[in-house]
Fold each of these.
Amino acid sequence: KVLILDFGSQYTQLIGRRVRELNIFSEIKPFNNPPEDLSEYKAVILSGSPFSVRADDAPHPDLSEIRGKKPLLGVCYGAQYLAHFNGGNVEKSNTREYGRANLSHVETDNPFLAKVNTGSQVWMSHADTIKQLPENTQLLASTHDVENAAFKFDGEETYGIQFHPEVYHSTDGKQLLENFLVNIAGIEQTWTPDAFVETTVAELKEKLGDDKVILGLSGGVDSSVAAVLLHKAIGPNLHCIFVNNGLLRKNEFSGVLKQYEGMGLNVKGVDASARFLDELAGESDPEKKRKIIGRVFVEVFDDESKLVDGATWLAQGTIYPDVIESVSATGGPSATIKSHHNVGGLPDYMKLKVVEPLKMLFKDEVRRVGASMGLDKELLGRHPFPGPGLAIRILGDITPEKVSILQEVDAIFIDGLKSNGLYDSVWQAGAMLLPVNSVGVMGDERTYEKCVALRAVESTDGMTADWVNLPYEFLQKTSNDIINKVPGVNRVVYDISSKPPATIEWE
Ligand code: XMP
């Protein structure tokens, strides 16, 4: 496997994913907390960073256990770090070096750059530049503005590149990573979804034996794939609990429950709608609504878990981005924008051991693993849906009537996206019920009814997002359908805000 030492670049996770797309397993660790045992890592990559090597507080890890002992690749800051502390010279660049550039000179004879073409587009993102390389290095590639774009240290497999091979805009970036990892480091490309399923199921069998495991299903991709993996390993000893909090999409509870049963899972559906809606009555504060839902979920889940006699494990669908220790530029934790993201987090007294079979996978890998186990395409392609569900899409207080209005509106929107072939090109979509009545006219009658906002965004991870340019004809038809078919709604608007500065959900 490959070790990626993170210096805090926004692209570090992309390096991890790109390496895995080559069917090579990768792990990301913070530069200031590297693994003690390096023996299993066949190569090391140093990421970019928001820091400057010239700053006093710049990351300055000890690489003596790595340099010359394993193939090493420094990307951007990683390259500048290698240059700067080995006799080279890094300075602030005079020209803007962001965005696309083209390689004007490439040493294609060097295996590191095999099949990388002169003229190939590369992606730059740096404020510093390597003015002079250390003496014991060989220059491998340049662009028009950046002479020292790629270099190698003599007598060791240590390379530096100024551009970012991990972003898609670097057209030969993946080739370059393959050259480094496969041709130079000699790593085998055996890490495939099928191989992951096989080894994970074997490990789970070994770890869990005849123990009973409880898992909360949400209808989402992660918990579903985790359930199927565990089911393969321990069959009926996996007890799944699917809670209806009354804030799911229309027909979601019964539909998804049937689907789970059809997959052979040992699943119990618990309809706690009334309890959730009761506890939420009269509450309009978004954070308090989230807290109530989180608490009631734990209570319901706890009651149900107690009914599973002798259970000793709790399984969770945690994925890799949730567990990567992040290096933040400020050193401190980032501000809480919304108290997310996991409804859940079970109380300590449950004393269950935790098993997280997807803990090392990125989201797209979870989907591929799901597909390799034959999970339904529709289930794997589902949009993300927040744990507190429609509660954070009903602005203000929640009543059963508002929930059912929003369920109808949402269903018309989502079904429309599906029947028009738009669903898969949208990352997430949904409707918001606004605490606003406005005047309308239907027939000869004046109406004074609710307004809904439709939102559809494209994103890769929900951290940033942009609104989707849905066809006008589609919006027109959807708006008509909603106003004609859903009593109580007389106005539809479309949200055209990006994140940042807006967020995806309205609460
Ligand atoms: P925001 O609104 O923060 O949403 O831009 C980013 C992503 O997170 C989801 N989201 C939540 N998920 N519990 C969840 O499980 C929450 O409280 C929550 N709030 C937002 C949102 O749907 C989007 O995918």
Note: The two ends are 41 Å apart (CA to CA).
Amino acid sequence: MRARPHPNILRTSRPRRSGQNGPVTDKGLVLVVEDERPIADLLRLYLTRDGFGVQVEHDGAAGLAAARRMRPVACVLDIALPSLEGTEICRRLREDGDWTPVVFLTARDDEVDRVLGLELGGDDYLTKPFSPRELVARVRALLRRAAGPGDGERVRTVGPVSLDPARRSVTVAGRDLTLTPTEFDLLAHLLRRPGRVFTREELLATVWGYASPAGTRTVDVHVAQLRGKLGDAAGVIRTVRGVGYTANA
Ligand code: CA
């Protein structure tokens, strides 16, 4: 296990913007809810430097209120927080129909299934200790993806599953399916070339927009959820043992 980098060195280099929270910029506002102040400061610094506005909250309830009030373009949520866990913030936003991309900061690898799970609807995660540069890259990748695919893509049908990229809708045997943006993009990518086998690394790179051998579990968890939602049509996505996934041709 690597030693955690000591973040206090950054206490001397403050972000350019004055005040507690930076103003909204062209790139939009990122909400960071993290009670470990050195980590929060570090994220503020890196996100600000990348051109984002940053709102930092150190408490869960304040974080949820800020998410509802300020409509950030993305949320970075620590899990263990005073008053309300990060997972609960995400769950309540999803309950409101708010699908703002969420990156969780987890302390333990075994939390990953839960935070990316159906009930919580997180889009990505980083396990502490992590590199703030990596966090910024993840946020940017999620936002690129949220911007949506190009226009003019045709409807794709495989078996009972039909996906319309323009409307971002999926039906199974004519029944509408509610997918998260991440699930939709994953399915769209697989259906783009039925029969073609995609490795987990490839899916991570194209759907999530980054490459990391450590992140491939993200793919497995989302595939499992997607299959759960597809129900009887789950067989449309086939696991190719030791390689990755494919949509049945
Ligand atoms: Ca914490």
Note: The pocket of calcium ion is lined by residues 35-36, 78, 80-81 (CB under 6 Å).
